[in-house]
């Protein structure tokens, strides 16, 4: 609230005082009072009104400043009525009552929505676990009866399993901290596990994998990192150059400042430079996605979301029709031994 807005809000009251001053001055003049006395009365009246408006403005501004600070300190601002002091002024009490009623309604609505989302998440997790049973059974039958047909079925099964995993991790991404376990992990084991999971897809698409300098250990959750690497491998296969005889995906680790970078680089179709800042947005597929109907815009969003939850950084660099490189940065902290 500024002084201008305060005075503008009380413009009618100010006009009323001015009109009253003019009428009083006219009356006093008609009854024979001296002009000096009239001006003195008007002057004193003006001082009193000015003093009242000044004090009232300072008090109201202080009140609203406290409310603003209190609101900014809350994560859920709709709860402000529950923590603010009950006002004294009659008008403020009415506003307080309305805000409190609105906050109560919002709290009930938020609780209801959270309950529905929890039920939906539990349903998705249950569905994922149930659907994995027939997938594993079909995979076992294909392994026991190998042929060109079963190999194609296995490749489609891998895709199905990837989408099922994606659904599970998407349902869990809001509360990753309840499911992850940070410990020392081997980048080599994590990467090779992801490669093994996609072996049929890589073989069928003629993808060559090159791994270098992965003999490093970092601290993170191996299960979540494997999922992120898996999503990046799927993207590399999806956006390969279709007419190229053999595509290559290079996976290597490199030392960076205060940490280790895991790089997954492909020689695919690349990404338009103007689209790089938006790649981690939910549902964004870009120009490549318009040509590839299988794009969903969820994979990279999940990678970014999970990296944020794990305290990691992820970055993408690319040149159109040359390469795309995704780097996951693992920070290296200092451990101190506490002696009792």
UniProtKB/TrEMBL annotation:
Keywords, comma-separated and alphabetical: ATP-binding, Cell membrane, Kinase, Membrane, Nucleotide-binding, Transferase, Transmembrane, Transmembrane helix, Two-component regulatory system
Domain Histidine kinase: 126-334
Catalytic activity reported: ATP + protein L-histidine = ADP + protein N-phospho-L-histidine
EC number of this enzyme: 2.7.13.3
Class of enzymatic activity (EC top level): transferase
TM region(s), chain numbering: 12-31, 37-59
GO MF entries: ATP binding; phosphoprotein phosphatase activity; phosphorelay sensor kinase activity
Protein name (database record): histidine kinase
Species per Swiss-Prot/TrEMBL record: Paenibacillus hemerocallicola
């Amino acid at each position: 609230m500024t002084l201008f807005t305060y005075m503008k809000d009380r413009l009618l009251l100010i006009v009323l005082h001015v009109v009253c001053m003019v009428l009083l001055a006219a009356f006093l003049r008609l009854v024979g009072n001296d002009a000096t006395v009239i001006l003195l009365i008007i002057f004193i009246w003006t001082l009193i009104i000015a003093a009242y408006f000044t004090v009232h403005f300072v008090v109201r501004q202080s009140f609203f400043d406290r409310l603003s600070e209190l609101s900014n300190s809350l994560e859920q601002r709709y709860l402000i009525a529950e923590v603010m002091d009950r006002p004294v002024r009659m008008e403020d009490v009415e506003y307080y009552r309305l805000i409190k009623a609105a906050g109560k309604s919002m709290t009930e609505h938020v609780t209801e929505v959270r309950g529905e989302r929890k039920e939906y998440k539990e349903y998705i997790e249950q569905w994922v676990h149930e659907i994995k049973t027939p997938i594993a059974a079909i995979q076992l039958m294909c392994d026991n009866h190998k042929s060109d047909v079963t190999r194609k079925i296995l490749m489609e099964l891998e895709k199905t399993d990837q989408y099922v995993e994606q659904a599970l991790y998407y349902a869990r991404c809001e509360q990753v901290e309840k499911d992850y376990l940070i410990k020392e992990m081997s980048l080599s084991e994590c990467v090779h596990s992801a490669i093994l999971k996609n072996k049929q897809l890589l073989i069928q698409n003629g993808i060559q994998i090159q791994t270098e300098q992965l003999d490093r250990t970092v601290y993170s959750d191996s299960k979540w990192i494997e999922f992120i690497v898996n999503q990046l491998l799927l993207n590399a296969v999806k956006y390969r150059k279709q007419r190229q005889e053999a595509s290559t995906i290079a996976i290597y680790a490199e030392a960076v400042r205060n940490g280790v970078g895991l790089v997954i680089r492909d020689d695919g179709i690349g990404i338009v430079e103007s689209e790089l800042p938006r790649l981690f947005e939910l549902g964004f597929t870009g120009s490549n996605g318009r040509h590839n109907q299988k794009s969903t815009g969820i994979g990279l969003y999940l990678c970014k979301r999970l990296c944020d939850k794990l305290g990691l950084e992820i970055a993408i660099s690319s040149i159109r029709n040359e390469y795309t490189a995704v780097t996951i940065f693992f920070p290296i902290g200092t451990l101190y031994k506490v002696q009792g």
